[in-house]
Amino acid sequence: MANNGSGPGYASPAEAMKAGREKLLYTVALYVGTGVEKPDYLATVDVDPDSPTYSQVVARTEMPQIGDELHHSGWNACSSCHGHAHMSRQYLLMPGVRTSNINVIDVSDAKNPRHHKVVSGEDIKAKTNLSAPHTVHCLHSDIIISMLGDADGNGPGGFLHLDQNFDIVGRWENDLGDMKYNYDFWYQPRHNMMVSSEWGAPNTFMPGFDLEDVGAGKYGQTIHFWDFEGKKIVKSIDMGADGMIPLEVRGMHDPASNEGFFAATLSSNVFRWWKTDDGDFEIEKVIDVPTIDVEGFPVPMPSLITDILISMDDKYLYFANWLHGDLRQYDITDRANPKLTGQVWLGGQLGKAPEVNGVTVQGAPQMIQLSLDGKRLYVTTSLFSTWDNQFYPDMKDKGGQMYMIDCDTENGGMTINPDFVVDFGNEPNGPSRAHEMRYPGGDVTSDIWM
Amino acid sequence: MAEQKHRVTINNRGGAVIEVAEDQTIYDAALAAGFQLPIACNYGGCITCAGKLLSGRVRQPKGTALNKRQSQAGYILMCVARPKEDCAIEVGVETHGQLYRNPFAAPQKRSV
Ligand code: FES
Question: Does ligand 1 come within 6 angstroms of the Cβ of B77?
Answer without folding.
Answer: yes
